[in-house]
Amino acid sequence: MRISYFNLIMDKSNFHIRNYESSSKPQGEVSWRSPSNIALIKYWGKHGNQLPCNPSLSFSLKNSYTETNVRYAPAEEKKPALQYSFEGKHEVSFETKVKKFIKNIYEYFPFLKHTDLSISSHNTFPHSSGIASSASSMSALALCFCSIERQCFQSLQDEGDFYRKASFIARLGSGSASRSVYEGFSVWGENKLISNSSDLFAISLLSQRGDHFNKLKDYILLVDSRSKEISSTAGHALMKNHSFANARFEQAKENLDKILTAIEQDNWNDFADITENEALSLHAMMMTSNPSYILLKPNTLKIIDKIKQARKQKALSVCFTIDAGPNVHLIYPERESRKVRTFIEQELLIYCSDEKGIEDQMGKGPQQIK
Ligand code: PMV
């Protein structure tokens, strides 16, 4: 296939700070707002240091984001201090996660070894809503650290270098977070279609894509916001020694090829078939792993059925995707919004807990606030 018009970025992969002087004493404050994203080609299975077993494709959301503020100052003690608060409250479990993440990235931000950090974070979307909070929170944090590097060491002046490093660092926190640092569609993972794609960081696919795909909407149908999703660490581990692992990784590569063609050719039906195939394959992997998980609820299946019917019988341009939980992301082009709204209200909300959903759409990517 041809992807000549995609706006591709040059592959450079040295993420260490050049001219780093440990005598520098960074001090100041930065804030970033970074979105969550929804995967259409799913990342499920990793190896080495957070490297994907197959390439994935997602788009960044608009309304579902994390805002993170980092205050930094020279460490007062030998060991740097870290304080983390979420939604205004000290959050121990996430603080532990962030501490581990920061230790893992010392190599790329050596100044963090001598810097006290006070981090506060806030999400615009509810917990357990089927929206990946690790993608938005880890990408927001990675962007903050890249901004500190830019401010204090005059590196990362080039925008391409800046976002590539942010994606690389975000990936080390949560694989899917690597795809959140760009506007619109992003691809993470080496593949033969996109010459400068990489397993180390995601790249942006800004393009003159077909009309259907310029402003995609994502309506999240909350089938069950209480039920526990499988943690992604446990999920990726299920793919080790899975009987279908190799076939799944090949399928994802083929699906990426097909979906990029569908987007280029503005072919909604192919796009819908591939997107749904990916979601169901992800769940098929979970159902056939050891231990196995069935995360789809009876109401998830009812919604899937309704969406398939609406596409066939009412010619509505809708399709679904589902992450590692029971909630359904209804994907559709903006121009179908009015008709889809009626469809949601009349036929889908009855299957949602408290008849609720969350409306979102493709967004413009992260934004620096301070
Ligand atoms: O980034 P992680 O480790 O939370 O894994 C994300 C896995 C899925 O959300 C199920 C798929 C994806 O590609 O986002």
Overview of the molecule:
It is a single chain. With 370 residues, this protein is of the alpha+beta class. It has 2 domains: 5-208, 2-Layer Sandwich (Ribosomal Protein S5, domain 2); 213-361, Alpha-Beta Plaits, CATH 3.30.70. Helices cover 33% and strands 22% of the residues. It contains 8 helices and 14 strands. The strands form 3 sheets. Strands 1, 4, 5, 6, 7, 8, 9 and 14 form an 8-stranded mixed β-sheet that branches. Strands 11-12-10-13 form a 4-stranded antiparallel β-sheet. A hairpin with a 3-residue loop joins β2 (46-47) and β3. α5 (245-264) packs antiparallel against α6 (268-287). The protein is globular, with a radius of gyration of 20 Å. Mean pLDDT is 92; it is low at 1-12. (3R)-3-hydroxy-3-methyl-5-(phosphonooxy)pentanoic acid binds next to loops.
List descriptors.
Ribosomal Protein S5, domain 2; Alpha-Beta Plaits; four-stranded antiparallel β-sheet; disordered N terminus; 2 domains; 8 helices; alpha+beta; binds (3R)-3-hydroxy-3-methyl-5-(phosphonooxy)pentanoic acid; single chain; 370 residues
